[in-house]
Amino acid sequence: MQRILGWCLSRLEHPVSQQEALAAETQALLDELTESLSPEDQAIYLLNKWTADEEYIAGQINQLQRLQAKLTTGFPLWRPWRRWGLMQRLHGLLEHIDRYKDALVKRRIQGHRAEVNDAPTSALWRRLLIHPKNRVTLSFLVLPDRVLVIRSYDYLDELPRDEALRRTQLDCLEGRLPFPIVNPTYNLFDYFSCASPLLPPIKQGRPDPI
What we know:
The longest helix is centred in the middle third of the chain and has 32 residues. This protein has seven helices and three strands; from the N terminus they run H-H-H-H-H-H-E-E-H-E. Helix 2 packs antiparallel against helix 4. The C terminus is likely disordered. A three-stranded mixed sheet has the order 1-2-3, covered by helices on one side. The chain is 53% helix and 10% strand. By secondary structure, it is mainly α.
């Protein structure tokens, strides 16, 4: 029921704070149930379980895909504003993923009940200004059913899309991801593309074989 409720909140675009509160409640219930099992049973139980954070991130990715689709179907003059809205939501997701990874590492090293302090969030304009010139950053997040790829670059440069996607495919084929995923779906988003609102959309889904 918690998972279905989370999907509904994401689909109806409820406030992020409400979705995060539900995710925290769901994770607490999962932790309580997990701790009631023996260590051997815990490993089996958690093998294919989504965490609440992963559920929330997947929901945000789905919303980003819907916003991205609107860039190619709406009135052309609205595209710069829609792209800016997409970047704001993507910035919020990046901030959440940073906190998620920080918590994951601390709990792995210090124990399940390690205290995790929220780091101060940065503004979107700051992220846009401090990214190094002539450098492309590929950020990965591996979820149980997909790989999120966020491609960041200087907003005045034009990125060779095919080459970036090719590098992503090579990374996956060379086994650089934390664990293998069978037939993964790739969700690829450009971060610094506000200066080029009329660029063609990025192809979503599974990459072509190399």
